Write the structure tokens for this entry.
Amino acid sequence: MSGLDSRGRPNGAHPIQINPEQLLDDGYVILRNVVPPERLNELRASFETLVDRQQANWARDRDDPGCFAYVAKQPRLAFQTVIDAATANTVEFCLHENTLGVSRQALGTRDVGLKQMILLCNPETPYGPDLWHRDVSHGPTNNAPLAGLQADMLSNGPGSVQWNIPLYDDDVLWVVPGSHRRLNTPRENQELLNDPRAKLSNCTQVSLKAGDGVMYINTILHWPSNYSTRLRRIIHLRYTSFGGQLFPYGSRFLWEPDFVRHLSPEGQAVFHRFLELAQLEDDRIEAFYRALLDQDPEAFRQALALLHPGDTGRLVCVVLLSKLARRMGALKRPEVANLPERERASAVGEQTFSIRNLESLARRFTGSETKLLGQRFAPLDARLQLETEHFVPSLASKPTRYAQEHMPDRFDLDDFIASWSNAA
Ligand SMILES: [Fe+2]
């Protein structure tokens, strides 16, 4: 069933080789026959079984946890939640040398985990063009400002890659090549303000045949140009690095491991390794927060260097961990902690099947500790807010005070450490 050898490689196949420089330069690479042609029909059939299964769940419950949100314009299946042994080839495909293996090449390390696997589908009624966007948002609980994320990636390499692999020919996606390396230009902003759902003057269409794939860095400016009723089945994956020079943004797994029992022994072993990597990262995150709680600059610097080995960009890692601490703190509030799981997840901006992942980290700390972490991060959080609300097309859905584009001015790692170690 799996077709994997003992090292997770497909039996008898010639792996795809990529040029990581091209990914860094353009922000995306198109790869042909990511799904080996002889496997296309088998995967189409299995995914269709899963679509039917999920449709039945949605018919009963639009908030069924098999989907992180039933989105009428683009139904999305968290397909691992509806597999069985007969359809486990869908998940096993995410461990293939052409997907996981190529992602390892792109990220420059074998220590790569699968963060997310979903199937994007066509809507039942025509929706038309969606908004141009980058897959990052910059609010009180999310991400560092875009230029910070980009500088970190340019200094230390990408921390994650995202994939679209259509099971039927697909040309819905357009991108602005190279935009993952920079902020929007004034011209792009003007065009986006004029019409955020229209073709930009410098964009390129991503035309894929069934089984091809596009691997991209998801800060790239991109556009779902037309959600029509044409049959659309996109395997949408995100892999995250645990062995690189930076701390990847949005790195926590968006799946619960219950489904792993349906996989082959080889597939199970790969997922167990993913969980081990995530556990090790959580140990490091805990050490980082403990150093901050203890107001111990030396332990703090050591913990930070393990999470973000690259010298440049460490403040970005601190910002990301300040956001994570804020989400943990929200979970500890009694009015949230006592809610049923689904409501708890939505109260803190998590997805139903990733809330337990955040809770397992949060359990390492008491409520007073997460409150104290909030105080330690407060001076940084203040520096991440502007005096007035602002709006940047493609980055935010509504105006916010949180800086979308730039890291704080005249505030570096030493300033952050001084902001809490002096208070000792
Ligand atoms: Fe997107």
Notes: Residues 133, 135, 222 surround fe (ii) ion (CB under 6 Å). The chain has a mean pLDDT of 92.
